[in-house]
Amino acid sequence: MTLLPVFVGLVVGRVALRGLLAHPLLPLWVRTAVFWAVPSGALTWVVIMTADDPFLFPETAPCPREPMRKGILGDGEVSGISTPFPPRAYCRWEDGTVYDLAPGAEFLFWVFLALTAVPLAAGLWHALRDPESLLRRTR
User: Fold this and answer.
1) What's the rounded Cα separation, in Å, for the pair 78 and 125?
2) Partner of 41 at 20 to 30 A CA spacing, among 19, 33, 67, 88?
3) Please, which residues bridge with residue 79 across strands?
4) Residues 32-86: pLDDT tens digits?
5) How many CB atoms lie within 10 A of CB 124?
């Protein structure tokens, strides 16, 4: 049952992309921005998801395993948490203190998502309004 929404999403995405490329009023820089925003957004998402991982240098982990001094950041055990969507990485201590690890990257992710979604929505709107423009014309 999960394959059906994926298939529908791929078909709608393809129609929106075709509509974006065929849209007569969108300048070239808008179309180019979509193609740069998609990989940049994916890279930003990967940065957010790995922000709490102490994989390279465990002694400099963003969420230290030993308790911090009382009153500095948090008390007790700490755990690093990443949520895939909406993307967020943070440390949570036993006393409830939460520390965001990548707020700048989260902001960039939402900017790249908007830079992708808005022009694709315009392309989908164009494709639904004028489906004849999506056909390839041969002479």
Assistant:
1) 47
2) 19
3) 92
4) 888 899 899 999 989 888 887 766 666 667 776 655 555 555 556 667 777 888 8
5) 18
